[in-house]
Prior knowledge:
By secondary structure, the chain is mainly α. Helix content is about 50%, strand content about 0%. It has a single domain (about 5-70), classed as Orthogonal Bundle (Non-ribosomal Peptide Synthetase Peptidyl Carrier Protein, Chain A). The chain has helices at about 5-10, 35-45, 55, 60-70. The longest helix is centred in the middle third of the chain and has 15 residues, at about 35-45.
Amino acid sequence: MTRVEDVIADVFGVDRDAVNDTASPATIDGWDSMGHLNLVCALEARFDVSIDIADAMDMVNVPRIKQVLLGYGVRG
């Protein structure tokens, strides 16, 4: 089962162990506005959902990403 942390690690090219509940744009290199767009697109593709722009903007760290995805029926 794919997890949110796996997607983040893939998108930003970091070790999976570096992605935990404290991961955010402040802790992961490349998680800037363009990186965030790439992350949202990867999450949509991996979990087969279409994320509303307001939700995408609210995905500021791993726990919040999981909370938003839960609203789309995704447990990640």
